[in-house]
Amino acid sequence: MNLFDVYPLFDITPSHAKDVWVYDVEGNKYLDLYGGHAVISIGHNHPRFIDALKHQLDQLMFYSNSIINHLQIDYAHALGEISDLNDYQLFLCNSGAEAVENALKLASFHTNKQRVLSFSHGFHGRTSAAVAVSDYEAIISPLNKQHLVSKIALEDHEGLENAFKSKDIAAVIVEPIQGVGGLDQVSGSFLEHVEVLCRKHNSCLIVDEIQSGCGRTGKYFAFQHHHVTPDLITVAKGIGNGYPLAGVLVHQKIKAQYGLLGTTFGGNHVACQAGISVIEVMQKQKIRASIPNLEQHFKERASKLSSIKQVKGKGLMLGLEFDAEISTIRKKLLYDFKIFTGGSANKHLLRLLPPLTIQKQHIDQLFNALEKLT
Questions:
Q1: pTM of the predicted model, to two decimals?
Q2: Please, what is the angle between helix 327-335 and helix 360-373, to 10°?
Q3: Any idea which fold 14-45+287-373 has?
């Protein structure tokens, strides 16, 4: 049997990794400034993380959600503490798309409405409703198009007001910083306008923090740079540091009922240990404290390169926009300078989502390479 060929692949086969470094089977050492789509938060193979998973594997790897799992309770408490959101409830699942599906479903249950309002260049996953609320026509199948979805541009206040005239909006879903779309940020004033209209029209505000959460912007969640209270918050990627873990933070006004949601593998024992250890490492090493200084250093180095039009994003969710498309730059960075970077729907944008453990010398390594390339 062959693999179903849906991924364009770089000709690199990793063998092992440590912190910000990835090593391939030929012995090459790569600086990872992409973290596998913002998945690696506390660095590759952090010893405390690995020890926690090994210990749990020796005890119990999995049992279904029909029994008590104290690790789920411990993880919920730890997540509430680090995010300052103790008054929310937590539903655990496996992936970001699954988190979005469940958030949309909860919003529809809560409001008894069907339509979702989303935004141009937004991306929320590839499953049924998640892909329907995304803005990438090529990956939306005819089956996905059954969902009632309206889309407007970010910062379009008039369009926002008009959208709510339909009276059937169950939820508005928004990324505080768009990932795949190219790192456009929602302003505080626009996000607050969304919340006001959601409250007025009995709709739910869903904030998608799958890429921007887990401390990547300095705050635990990117929406916390603004003054809003989401009804639902989706999390994934960095919270498991490579182990599949995702969830929905649910405002206490949304009531749980038996059978409302469900998952076989979500919140399993190993996944919860992964999540707990990520939080422990972040707190012990005070990882978020260094992010503003790293962002500032990044922007200072970028300002010295005339080929860069602008820096986008926040914290360690950053992008460099060039006049030309960046496909050649990405390949040269990878093959000639051994640096992993990312792209986006904006073909002029070099996207950086590094482990949160990077240091200034790693940023310098990137810009020293770019100076030679551009």
A1: 0.97
A2: 120
A3: Aspartate Aminotransferase, domain 1 (3.90.1150)
